[in-house]
């Protein structure tokens, strides 16, 4: 029975919604041809799909944008060669995926990618019977029909291995640009081995108009003129860099800058503006700029940059500036002129004035100096927002912990940290500063295997893991990945010569690249050499290339027992070196005879050995506040048991009593009484806030009255000990 048009459209609407929910970006097509203008940059919602039913009554077929769902299109008419190319593909991928047939033996395989890239294609090959063959990888700016009827055969498209929608996009094998290039190169070699004639005139077999993006065929990057190659390399580098940017890393400014740069090349006709706009918008989608700023604002930035660049055409290429033909993307380089304002965001921190927001660092130390315990302590602090070593966490977020050694101990050690932060969270809550994080589900994830990140395969694997974690952090917790901790260097790198400066520099460059591509700070746990004064084991290039070097130190007796445990800042770009953070390693009873340890930080010391916290926490305004509290306590205190009868007793006074005494004591030099009152009220509110944030006071509402009390060491010790 032949279905009516409305029945086909109704079924297509259901299929398109299923595709969208499974992570694909569906579009309506007539045959192979998309029917929506500007479809390459479409952002699809379910409401849009409902509207297509009436807006496009002849669009019975359904395609998906290959922006993040690349397709290897084996446009080969010889069945044996087509099968050989598909077999090669699965051998390279290590797993089979979904394969679509429309006009056999031609076929297409579907994948996923986190970083969109341009279309990659073999040359067109002509076989002895005059058939034309080609293999393409469709990605940014293209689409592929997945459901409906093939316009040439009149038969429905069929799938082997599952069907999109039934199989979620997230479950497809991942195809990176590097692997895609290898696939295309090997496919070309297979066709070349048949003795087929290679057409270097870049003729097509007619599908470009339907797939889209024909003007950015990577075939040009090999056979085009030098200007075309230069522009394509620049486009590829710009899109790769933008795609990898993290939130709060200047994505909008970068989009404007790269659009301007490419606009200068559009003005010379080296590259098509529509192609540039499509690719850059796809990169903006990949880095979530469109999701955060909106499509209209993103397009406005894009158009502004391209338009500005087109007003300043790119100068002619000289022998020095013209690129050697290469598949490697050209990096973008920003120029900073003296006298111009710096539009970049200010230097950022994960932990205030201690852990940078981006870059690379080392946490090095002797054996048994609590390096891994400190690394877990930092992980939990960043994930929960609780202070680390007394320093506030400026950028809470997700943490990826690579446990290259001791992976089976991760859960146990984390229990010790959990016990500690629960007690600290209770203290903070008692002080009127409850934390927002769910301590039962922190944005903290780990892997229990080594990733050899000094190899190309290992580097790509770690980057893929990090980007996957970043996306899942955003989905699960609404926070980005901000820190990657690798424990340890020696378990993750196969050094040929650990003392080689050149080899070490390559390793550190790889780590910096990981930070730049993920927007996260990368900290590697490492060992000291035999002479602790020299520092980290191996080449000095490790510490030279690092933005931060934390030394985990301890005094050890002949029996192996340690004392005087401390963390010292050996190096900190944009910060102070020499500061020490003493700590105790305390035992935590987990019950059922199981124990672990956690770090208990003491007040930090400067390089002279003097405390930089403690009494120094009381500023002038806070000293007046404390004096007011002590005065009221002497005259009007009330003994309370805010933690129950088993908890410590505190000497509390009411908020209004303290406020009255503070205002009477605080000096305000102003003739106008109202102005003096305003100054005093502002000072009191500021003192209250600071005292609570520094855990100098606690508060509790009892019988409708707000009470305050000064926090004593005995109270803090009880809270930490009990985890109440």
TrEMBL record:
Pfam families: AAA_25, Prim-Pol. It comes from the Bacteria. Coiled coil: none annotated. InterPro entries: DNA_primase/pol_bifunc_N (IPR015330), P-loop_NTPase (IPR027417). SUPFAM superfamilies: P-loop containing nucleoside triphosphate hydrolases (SSF52540), Prim-pol domain (SSF56747). This is AAA family ATPase. It comes from Bradyrhizobium barranii subsp. apii. The lineage of its organism: Bacteria, Pseudomonadati, Pseudomonadota, Alphaproteobacteria, Hyphomicrobiales.
């Amino acid at each position: 029975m032949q279905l009516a048009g409305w029945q086909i459209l109704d079924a297509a609407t259901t299929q398109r919604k299923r595709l969208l929910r499974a992570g694909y970006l569906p579009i309506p097509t007539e045959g192979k041809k998309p029917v929506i203008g500007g479809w390459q940059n479409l952002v699809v919602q379910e409401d849009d799909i409902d509207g297509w039913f009436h807006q496009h009554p002849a669009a019975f077929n359904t395609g998906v944008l290959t922006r993040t769902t690349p397709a290897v299109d084996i446009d080969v008419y010889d069945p044996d060669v087509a099968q050989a190319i598909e077999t090669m593909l699965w051998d390279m991928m290590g797993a089979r995926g979904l394969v679509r047939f429309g006009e056999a033996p031609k076929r297409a395989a579907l994948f996923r990618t986190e970083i969109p890239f341009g279309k990659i294609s073999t040359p067109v090959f002509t076989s002895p019977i005059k058939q034309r063959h080609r293999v393409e990888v469709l990605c940014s700016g293209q689409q592929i029909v997945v459901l409906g009827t093939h316009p040439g055969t009149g038969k429905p498209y069929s799938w082997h291995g599952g069907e999109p929608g039934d199989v979620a996009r997230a479950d497809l094998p991942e195809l990176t640009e590097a692997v895609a290039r290898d696939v295309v190169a090997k496919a070309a070699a297979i066709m070349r081995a048949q003795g087929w004639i290679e057409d270097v005139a870049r003729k097509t077999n007619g599908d470009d108009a339907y797939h889209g993006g024909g003007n950015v065929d990577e075939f040009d990057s090999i056979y085009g003129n030098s200007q075309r190659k230069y522009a394509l390399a620049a486009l590829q580098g710009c899109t790769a860099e933008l795609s990898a940017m993290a939130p709060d890393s200047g994505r909008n400014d970068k989009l404007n800058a790269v659009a301007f740069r490419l606009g200068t090349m559009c003005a010379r006709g080296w590259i098509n503006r529509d192609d540039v706009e499509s690719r850059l918008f796809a990169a903006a989608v990949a880095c979530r700029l469109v999701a955060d700023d909106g499509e209209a604002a993103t397009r406005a930035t894009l158009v502004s940059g391209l338009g500005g660049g087109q007003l300043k055409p790119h100068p002619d290429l000289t022998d020095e500036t013209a690129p050697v033909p290469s598949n490697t993307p050209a990096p973008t380089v920003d120029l900073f002129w003296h006298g111009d304002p710096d539009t970049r965001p200010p230097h950022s921190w994960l932990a205030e004035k201690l852990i940078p927001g981006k870059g690379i660092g080392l946490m090095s130390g002797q054996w048994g100096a609590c390096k891994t315990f400190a690394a877990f302590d930092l992980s939990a602090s960043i994930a929960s927002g609780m202070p680390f070593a007394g320093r506030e966490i400026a950028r809470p977020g997700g943490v990826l912990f690579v446990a290259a050694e001791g992976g089976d101990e991760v859960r146990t050690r984390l229990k010790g940290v959990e016990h500690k932060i629960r007690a600290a969270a209770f203290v903070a809550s008692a002080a009127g500063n409850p934390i927002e994080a769910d301590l039962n589900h922190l944005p903290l994830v780990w892997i229990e295997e080594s990733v050899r990140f000094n190899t190309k395969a290992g580097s790509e694997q770690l980057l893929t893991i990090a980007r996957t974690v970043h996306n899942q952090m955003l989905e699960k917790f609404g926070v980005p990945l901000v820190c990657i901790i690798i424990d340890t260097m020696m378990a993750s790198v196969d050094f040929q010569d650990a003392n080689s400066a050149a080899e070490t520099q390559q390793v550190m460059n790889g780590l910096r690249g990981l930070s730049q591509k993920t927007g996260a700070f990368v900290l590697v746990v490492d060992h000291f050499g035999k002479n602790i004064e020299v520092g980290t084991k191996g080449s000095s290039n490790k510490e030279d290339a690092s933005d931060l070097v934390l030394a985990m130190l301890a005094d050890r007796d002949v029996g192996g027992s340690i004392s005087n445990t401390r963390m010292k800042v050996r190096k900190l770009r944009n910060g102070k070196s020499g500061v020490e953070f003493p700590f105790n390693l305390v035992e935590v009873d987990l019950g059922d005879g199981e124990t672990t340890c956690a770090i208990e930080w003491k007040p930090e010391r400067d390089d002279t050995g003097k405390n930089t916290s403690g009494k120094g926490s009381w500023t002038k305004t806070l000293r007046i506040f404390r004096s007011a509290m002590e005065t009221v306590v002497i005259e009007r205190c009330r003994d309370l048991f805010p933690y129950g009868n088993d908890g410590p007793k505190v000497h509390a006074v009411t908020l209004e009593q303290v406020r009255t005494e503070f205002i009477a004591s605080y000096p305000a030099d102003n003739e106008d009484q109202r102005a003096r009152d305003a100054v005093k009220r502002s000072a009191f509110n500021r003192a209250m806030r600071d005292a609570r944030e520094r855990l100098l006071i606690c508060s509790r509402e009892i019988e409708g009255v707000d009470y305050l009390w000064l926090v004593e060491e005995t109270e803090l010790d009880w809270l930490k000990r009990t985890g109440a």
